[in-house]
Structures are given as C-alpha cells and as structure tokens.
Automatic annotation (TrEMBL):
<dbReference type="InterPro" id="IPR011652">
    <property type="entry name" value="MORN_2"/>
</dbReference>
<dbReference type="Pfam" id="PF07661">
    <property type="entry name" value="MORN_2"/>
</dbReference>
<protein>
    <submittedName>
        <fullName>MORN repeat protein</fullName>
    </submittedName>
</protein>
C-alpha cells in the first residue's frame, strides 16, 4: 500500500511540475513559466514567465556557444505596459549596454560601455518612437568626452563637437535636419584653427579659409560650384 501511495505521489508531482512549464491558459495564451531551447538542441534559448500572454518579471535570453547556453540579455518587464528594463551581456558576462525598451524599440536613456571595462562609452536618448532624440555623448575610456551632439527625431540637429583625448576641440559643426548646415571649424591637436567655412544643406558654401601655424594660407569660394552632370 505504501509503495502504491509513493508511486501515486510521484506521478501527481511529475504531472503538476509538467503543467507549470510551457502551458497555455483557456484563451490559448502563454501562461506560467516558459522555457525554450534552440531548435533541435537541448540548449536553452530563453526562460521567463507569462501572465495570460504578457511577459512578467525577469526574462533571460541566451546564445548557443559550442553547445552551451550563454546569457546574452535580461529583461525585467513592467506589469502595466510592454516596457522592460534591459541589459545586454558579452559572452564573458560583462555588461555591454543597458536601458529601456518598448517591444523592440529603444526608449529613454541608454548607456553603452567600453570593451573589457565598466567605463562608460556612450550615452544616448530615445523618444517613444525609438528615434534618437536629445543629447548624445561619447567618452574615451578615461572619462573624457570624445563627441557631443544633439538629435531630433533621429537626425542630427544643432551643435556638435569632437574632442581630443586632452579635451581640445578638433571639430565644431552645426546640423539641420541631419545635414551639415552653418559654420564649421576644424582644429589641430594643439587647438589651432586649420579650416573654417559654411555648410549649406550638407554642402560647402561660400568662402572657406585654410590656415597653417595661425596664418591664412588659402581661400576657396564654393558659392558657384555646379552639380556634376
């Protein structure tokens, strides 16, 4: 009798545990804990939990590297919408980038890191449509700003600067609707002006001036340049 009860207990336990994995609710929506492997393998591709078709809590996603599951991303889903706090990892477990997503769209502030270090490399901002929108900064691995620019609805807009490792401005541009437009200046690593002029709708316009050792050496007039036929 005891042996029969033990068999029944194991059978029921196995059935219950089986029902908690990869199941659907009455409406045919995924519900409960789900785990999926890469096709025709036993290598885990993702794991997480659904609540009547919606992802909840933390999901983990993996790469198949030589037959081993290696964590590539984690997503913590908001209960009230489809947004998630996301972290991407290298194959060695280092954080590559982190930010927020809505479905497949990047939204809000995103941070990216230099290889083999936790030093910040890039900071970007995205709008609700997944377009770059706002200030974008790129850093050298010592923390010094390398690039500074602004985006509006996915296109460069306004002032942009590039810096040397010693914080010397190398390029100073202005953009309009994604194209160079306005005064542009180029400097050497010493901070000396080497060229300046105006861009108009992405093309050089008017008189450009070129310098060596602080002295004007050449002028070029682009006002009457014709389009190549």
């Amino acid at each position: 009798m005891k042996q029969l009860n033990l068999i029944l207990f194991l059978f029921i336990s196995f059935s219950i545990s089986g029902q908690t994995i990869n199941q659907f609710d009455e409406s045919g929506k995924r519900h409960g804990i789900w785990k999926k492997n890469f096709d025709n393998t036993k290598v885990l591709r993702y794991e997480g939990q659904f609540q009547h078709g919606k992802e909840v809590g933390t999901f983990k996603f993996y790469k198949n590297i030589k037959g081993q599951s290696v964590l590539t991303a984690s997503k913590f889903f908001n209960e009230n919408d489809h947004t998630a706090e996301v972290t991407f990892f290298s194959s060695k477990g280092k954080v590559i980038s982190e930010g927020k997503m809505n479905g497949k769209k990047f939204i809000g502030k995103w941070k990216y890191y230099h290889n083999n270090t936790d030093k910040l490399m890039t900071v970007e901002h995205y709008n609700e449509d997944g377009d770059l929108h706002g200030k974008r900064l790129v850093f050298y691995d010592n923390g010094q700003v390398a690039e500074s620019a602004y985006y509006q609805f996915g296109k460069l807009e306004g002032e942009a600067k590039w810096y040397s490792l010693k914080n010397v401005v190398l390029k100073h541009f202005f953009y309009k609707n994604g194209e160079l437009h306005g005064v542009s200046k180029f400097y050497n690593p010493k901070g000396e002006l080497i060229a300046e002029g105006i861009y108009k709708n992405g093309k050089k316009h008017g008189v450009w001036k070129y310098y060596e050792n602080g002295e004007l050496t050449e002028e070029k007039d682009f006002s009457h340049k014709k389009k190549a036929s």
